[in-house]
Design brief:
The protein has 290 residues and is α/β, with parallel strands linked by helices. It contains 5 helices and 4 strands, in the order αβαβααββα. A 4-stranded mixed β-sheet has the order 2-1-3-4. A hairpin with a 5-residue loop joins β3 and β4. It starts with a helix and ends with a helix.
């Protein structure tokens, strides 16, 4: 049976752990605020850029650009964004499960992966997937230069006919408690679709006024579109990870408090039992002496 000293040691150990989890929660909360602001700020630009690009594509009968070449999807590249560290609840597990589902659905294709984040890199390497590149320690502080580098790699592989399609797999920030796992097709860019699923005709689109030829604008916007979508996914993933870590550390702190209460209760019972035993022994000894 544990002694009072054992209970005190365990309570002290749990309190130390609780202090660590509480500090990690506050750190994640402070970083979440900045990451959330960045993710929300990137959404309108990425969405409007995508809409304008698809509108331009709809105005050209047969857009001619290496990044718009449509081929049978026999060689697929998946960009998987995970966290750099653990202690974020089921954040990494959920993303990797989504990525594995996607990769299993396309197991008859030639698959290559670009992991962004250490946890995804390690898990996908153990699973035996082929890497086109890997990026770690880039999501704690998302920088545009990293997104541009990934976009340049993707564009180069697509232009050189080494891949037929590119997909982004990431966790989109929704709120502190939930995230939205997404699989988005990055390349080839698909034109705007009507509600019936057909490509929209020029007459049904927003009537933009272009100062340059649509073909020239298309060549300028496509690289920016790829960079913006990858940057947005990185910002969303970073915010979602901090939200998951904050929630996980809050839960761990609360659970530690419950463990401390339970241990304290058991310790008090043991102490009370020891006191009662000593009283009984004293009373018994006194009665025998009388």
């Amino acid at each position: 049976m544990p002694t009072l000293l054992d209970f005190r040691r365990r309570i002290r150990s749990v309190k130390n752990t609780q202090q660590i989890t509480r500090a990690m929660k506050f750190v994640a909360a402070s970083r979440l605020r900045r990451a959330q602001e960045s993710a929300l700020a990137a959404r309108p630009y990425a969405a409007e850029l995508a809409r304008m690009l698809r509108s331009i594509m709809g105005r050209i009968d047969e857009p001619q650009h290496p990044l718009l070449a449509e081929r049978p999807e026999q060689r697929i590249l998946a960009i998987v964004l995970t966290g750099e560290r653990g202690l974020a609840g089921a954040f990494n597990t959920n993303i990797l499960r989504k990525a594995n589902e996607f990769l299993r659905e396309h197991k008859d294709k030639k698959l290559s992966v670009v992991p962004v984040g250490k946890k995804g890199r390690d898990a996908l390497k153990r699973a035996g997937f082929s890497f086109a590149a890997e990026y770690i320690n880039v999501l704690a502080k998302v920088e545009f230069g990293t997104a541009r580098e990934i976009a340049g790699l993707v564009s180069k592989l697509y232009k050189e006919d080494q891949i037929d399609a590119v997909y982004l797999i990431f966790s989109e920030f929704k709120n502190v408690m939930t995230a939205n796992l997404k699989v988005e097709k990055l390349l080839p860019v698909e034109p705007e679709r009507s509600e019936g699923g057909d490509a929209k005709q020029p007459g049904s689109q927003v009537d933009y006024i272009y100062e340059q030829a649509p073909e020239k604008l298309l060549g300028a916007l496509l690289p920016k579109y790829i960079e913006a979508q990858i940057l947005r996914a990185m910002l969303e993933s970073s915010a979602a990870e901090y939200a998951a870590r904050m929630a996980a550390m809050e839960s761990a702190t609360r659970n530690a408090g419950e463990v401390i209460q339970a241990l304290t209760l058991h310790m008090n019972k043991v102490r009370q039992a020891a006191i009662t035993k000593e009283i009984i022994e004293i009373v018994s000894g006194a009665s025998h002496g009388a």
